[in-house]
Amino acid sequence: MTALAPGSIGLATSDAARQVARRHRVGRAGLAVFQLSTIVGIVVLGALLYNIANEAAGLVAYEHKTDPAAVLPGGRDLAALSAPELAAVLTANLSPGEVATLEREAPLAERSQAELRRLVDERVLETHAAAAWNLTDSVLDRPAIEATVAERHPDADLRLTSWLSPAFVTAPQSGDAEYAGIRTAILGSLWVIVITMAVAVPVGVAAGIYLEEYADHTRWLNRAIQTNISNLAGVPSIIYGMLGLAVFVRALEPLSSGGAFGAADPTTANGRTILSAGLTMALLILPLIIINAQEAIRAVPSSLREASFGLGATRWQTIRHHVLPGALPGILTGTILAMSRAIGETAPLIVVGMSTYITFDPSSPFDKFTTLPGQIYQWTARPQPEFHHIAAAASVVLLVLLVALNASAIYGRNRAQVRY
Amino acid sequence: MTVTTTRLRGVEAAPEADTVPLGRRRRWREDAVEAVLFAAGFVSILTTGAIVVVLGKDALHFFRNPDVSLVDFLTGTVWQPQLGKFGLLPLLNATLMVSGIAMVVALPIGLSIAVYLSEYATPAVRNRLKPTLEILAGVPTVIYGYFALTFVTPILRWALGARTVDIYNVLSAGLVVGILVIPLVASMSEDALQAVPRALREAAYGLGATRLETSLQVVVPSALSGIAAAFMLAMSRAIGETMVVAIAAGAGPRLTANPLRSAETMTGYISRISGGDLSYNSVDYDSIFAIGLALFVITLGLNILSGRIVRRFREVYE
Amino acid sequence: MTVALEAGPRARTARNGANPPMGGDNVLEARALHVYYGAFRAIENVTLPIARNRITAFIGPSGCGKSTMLRAFNRMNDLVPTARVEGDIVYRGQSIYAPGVDPVEVRRHIGMVFQKPNPFPKSIYDNVAWGARINGFRGTRRELDDLVEAALVQAALWDEVHDKLDQSGLSLSGGQQQRLCIARAIAVKPDVILMDEPCSALDPIATLRIEDLMQQLKERYTILIVTHNMQQAARASDYTAFFNMGDRRQGYLVEFGPTPELFTNPKDPRTEDYITGRFG
Ligand SMILES: Nc1ncnc2c1ncn2[C@@H]1O[C@H](COP(=O)(O)OP(=O)(O)OP(=O)(O)O)[C@@H](O)[C@H]1O
Ligand SMILES: [Mg+2]
Questions:
Q1: 3-state SS, residue A264
Q2: Were both Cys, which of A393, B73, C66, C254 would link to A56 (CB 3.0–4.6 Å)?
C-alpha cells in the first residue's frame, strides 16, 4: 500500500500540471457550450422578432382595375392629391348611393387625406396587391424584384409599403388583405379580456386568501383544493376550450347567447359569444391568479398579522386592513401577467367558436367575436402570401401590447415592493 | 370584589371586574366572508369536476357509437371519420413526434442555460438574461406558429430540398415547440440547481474540482430530480401545445415516422374540427372529446408525476 | 385635552409592597397548562398566578417555551395551526379556553407587544387609532385625536412625534417604533399587556426608556414580560418565573416568586445556576 505522503500528488510533477491544464481546457469548452446555448435563446428571440418585422413591410406591386391616369386629375400621383381633390374624385366616380353612405358615416369634407386616398384606392381604382416581398428581399434585391414586376405585372406600381399603418389598426376586417384591419379583432380581445378579468380576479384573489389565511391544511378538502389548483395550471389550454364549448356554449346556451335576456344576436343566436369566451378564459387563468395571489399574500410578514390579532382584530379585519394592502402590488403584477397570458391565448377560443369573419364592432357580451391572436391565426392559415404580411403586422401590434403589459408588470414588481 | 369602572369617551364602559364578557360575539360577517372565500376556492374543484364530466360524458357517447370501439380507438392505425375509422395512433404518433423533437431541442439548451445562469453568470448578466427568457415565455403561441411556418419551414425546405420537406411538416412544428418550452425548462431547472446547498459546491471546489466538474458532476446530479420534473412538465406542455401544430404541422391525420411530412396531432385535430361549423350531434363532435380525454389523461399524468418528484426532492434538502 | 387612559377594569388602588402571588388579587392564572405543537409538548404542567398591577417576568434559556407560555395567555397560539392547549388559563374568574370564548375578545383585554417592533406600514396616527377603530370606537374625530394623544403620552412618545403624526410608523427609530407599538396596544384599553422580549432589538438607552415606561404603565395595567436580560428582570419586575427545558425539550416552571426573593435567595439550585450565569 502506498502511503499518502504529502507531495505524492504534488503539483510540481509535469504530468499533473498537464492534467490540470487539460481539465481547465475542458472547463472552458463546457462554458462555451453553456454560453452558446444561452446565445441560441437570444438569437431565436431575435429571429422571431426579425421575422415578424421583416414580413410586416416590404415592396408591394399594386395593380389597378381602373387606370389611375383616367380618373385622377391631371394624371397626377394619388399621394400628391389634396383631400378636397380626392373627395372630388370619389364623388365623380362612385354611384350617388355609395357617396351618400360614405357621407353618412363621416362627411367626406372632414376626412383626412390618408383616409380618402385609401377610399379612392379601394373603391375607384380597385387597387390590389399583385405580389409582395418581405423587407429584406425588398432592400437587398430591389433590381431583381423590379425586373420581375416589369415582366409579370407591367401595369403595376411598385411601392415600399408598411402593412402596419394607422388605417390597418382602425379598419375592420375585410376579405382583401390590402384593406383588412384589426379594429374588430382588437375590440373583440378587449371585450373578452374585460369579462375574463372581471370574473377571474375577484374569484382568484378570494381563493388565494382562503387558501393562505383560512384553510386548515390538515383537512383533506383544503389540501385537495391546493393540489387541484396546481394540476389545473398544467391542463392544456385547448381542454379549457372544450370545457367552454360543452358548458358555456352548449349547455348554457340560453344564457351565453343572451336569449334568456332577450338580447341574443339575431344573426347567430348561439352560444359562441364573447361571454362564453370570457368565461372560458377566466377559468383558464384562474389557477395562475390564485397561485400568484397566494405568493403575494405569503410575502406579507406574519408580524403584521400578529400585531393586528394582538389588538383584538378579527381575521377579516386583519386581512382587509393589513394583508391585502401589503399583498396588493404582488397581486397586481400577477394579474397583469395573467392578463397578458389571456390576451395571447388562441386555442381555447378556436374551440369555443371564434368567428372567422366579422366586420362589425362587437357591442355586447352576446355578440359573435374574433380576437387579435385569433385573427393572426386565421390570416396565417390562409395560403395567400398577402395575408401572411398582415398577420405579421397584427403580430407586431399584439407583441407591442404584451411587451408593454409585461414590462409594466415587471417594473411594478421591482418598484412597488413594500418594505417592512 | 368591586372595581370602580370609568367610562372612557367613545369606548364601551369597562366591564365589571371578573365578569368581563369574553363570550363569542356573533360575527356573521366573518362567517359570511369565510363562506364566500371558500366558495371561490371551491370553484377550482368544480372546474376539474366539470372537465372530467364533460370529457367523460361526450367520450362515452362517442364509444357508444356502433362504428366505434375502444380497442380500435387505441390500436387502430387509421383515423378517417368519413369511413368510420377511428384509430388514435396517427394523431398520437404525430403528437409524440412533435413533443419528442421539442424535447431534443429544449432539454439540452434549456439545461445549459440553467447551468449557465445558476453556476456561471454574474448577477448583472443574470438580470439581463432572465427578462429575456421571460419575454420569450410571454410570446403568444400563435406567433410561434407563424414563426414556424414563415421562417423555420422555409429554412428547412431550402436546406433539405423542397421536395423532401412538406410545406406543413412535423419537424418545423417540433423545433418551434421546443423553442417555446426552453424558458420553462431553463427556469425550472435553474430553480432546482439553486436549491442545491452551497456546501456541496464548496466541498467539490475544496477537492480541487473545476467549475465545470463541480457543475456537471456534483450540482446537476444533485438536482436531477428537479430537472426531471422540469422535463416532464415541459413534455406535458409540448403535448398540449396547439397553435404551433395547427399552423405548421399540417391538417389531416397520417401515420408516418418521417418528420419531414405533414401529420396532424391530437390538439391540431381538435382545433381544426371544432373551428369549423360543428354540429353537436355528430360523431365528429364526440370524437374530439374522446381525443381531449386522452390528452387530459396524458398531460395530467405527467403533471402529477412532475409535482411528486418536485415535492420529494424538496424534502431532501429542506 | 388630556384624557386619562384607564385600564379596562380599573385597578384597585395598589397596596404598598408586593402582593402575595397566591392571594386573591390575581388577574390571570395558568392552571396545569400544557401547550403542544403537534405531538411536541412545548409547555408542561405550568401553574402560575399573575398579580394585578404588577410586572411579572419570564426568564429561562432559549427555546424553553417562554414565548409559547406568554402567547397562551391571549390565545395567540390559536394562530399556529398545530398548536393545542391542555389545562386552563383563568382570566378574572373565567376560563379563556372555555368553548364559548371568543379569542378576539380575549385579545381585546389582553394585548401584546412583540420582540421586533412591528408597526403597521401606516401613519403614526393610524397605527394608534386603528385598534380603537376596529374595536368599535364610535367617538368623533376630536375624541379619537385625544385618544391617540393620550396613548402616545402614556407610551412616552408624544413629545417626539406630536408634530409628525402623519408620517409612516416605519420612519421612526427602533426604540420609538417599539414605544409606538406599546401606544398602539394601550389605545385599545387592555387590562393586561404581554411583552415578548420588547427590548431585545433596542439599544441600552432605548431599553431603559421602555423599562421606565413599564413602571409607569403598571399603575394601570398588569404586565407580563419575557426577557433574556437578567438585570432587566431584576430591575424591572415584581415577580419572576424561571422556566427550564426538560430532556424532551419540554418547558416547565422551575421556580416562581417575588423578584427580590428569587434573585437573592433562589430555592432551586437550577435557578441559582441560571441567574448567576453558571447555567448549561
Ligand atoms: N410554531 C411552532 N411550531 C412548532 N414548534 C414551535 C413553534 N413555535 C415554537 N416551537 C417550539 O417550541 C419550543 C418553545 O419555543 P418558544 O419560542 O416558546 O421558546 P422561547 O423560550 O421563547 O425561546 P427564545 O428565548 O429563543 O425566544 C421550541 O422548542 C420551539 O422549537
Ligand atoms: Mg421567544
A1: coil
A2: A393
A370-384 burial code (b ≥16 CB/10 A, e <16):
bbbbbbbbbbbbeee
**CB nearest to A231's CB, from B30, B274, B300:** B300
Q: Which neighbouring-strand residues pair with C244?
A: C252
Contacts of A17 (CB under 8 A, 6+ apart): A11
User: In CATH, what class is B73-313?
Assistant: mainly alpha
Digits of tens for pLDDT over chain C (280 positions)?
A: 344 454 444 333 333 333 344 445 889 999 999 999 999 999 999 999 999 999 999 999 999 999 999 999 999 998 888 899 999 999 998 999 998 888 999 999 999 999 999 999 999 999 999 998 888 888 899 999 999 999 999 888 999 999 999 999 999 999 999 999 999 999 998 999 999 999 888 888 888 888 999 999 999 999 999 998 888 999 899 999 999 998 999 999 999 999 999 999 999 999 988 888 776 5
Burial of C43 from C-beta contacts in 10 A (0-12 / 13-18 / 19+): buried
Q: Report domain extents, chain B.
A: 16-64, 73-313
Q: What is the 3-state secondary structure (H, E, C) of C224-274?
A: EEECCCHHHHHHHCCEEEEEEECCCCCEEEEEEEEHHHHHHCCCCHHHHHH
CB contact under 8 A, A301 and C118: yes
**Cβ-Cβ contacts under 8 Å, B28 against chain C:** none
Whether the Cβ atoms of residue A90 and residue A83 lie closer than 8 Å to each other: no
What residue type is B288 in one-letter code?
Answer: I
Residues 12-51 of B with CB under 8 A from C: 12, 14-25, 27
Q: Tell which CATH classification among 1.20.200.10, 2.60.120.10, 3.40.50.1970, 1.10.3720.10 matches the domain A183-415.
A: 1.10.3720.10
Say how far apart CA A70 and CA A87 lie, in whole Å. Answer: 16
May I ask the CATH architecture of the domain C26-118+192-275? Answer: 3-Layer(aba) Sandwich (3.40)
CA-proximal residue: ligand 1, atom 18 (nearest) = C65
- Rounded to 5°, the CA angle B217-B123-B132 comes to 95
Amino acid at A260: A
Annotate B166-190 with DSSP letters as a single string.
-SS-HHHHHHHHHHHHHHHHHHHHH
Domain edges within chain A = 68-96, 127-161, 183-415
- What does the domain layout of chain C look like in residue ranges? 26-118+192-275
Note whether B281 contacts C: Cβ–Cβ < 8 A.
no
Instruction: Output the residue whose Cα is nearest ligand 1's atom 22.
Output: C67
C50 three-class SS: strand
SS3 A359: coil
Whether C168 and chain A come into contact, CB under 8 Å, resolves to no
Query: Which chain A residue lies closest to B277 (C-alpha atoms)?
Result: A353
Could you give the 3-state DSSP secondary structure of residue A180?
A: coil
Q: What is the DSSP letter of C119?
A: -
Partners of residue C191 in chain B, C-beta under 8 Å: 20
Interhelix angle A14-55/A385-415, rounded to 10 degrees, is: 120
Contacts of A145 (CB under 8 A, 6+ apart): A59, A133, A137, A138, A158
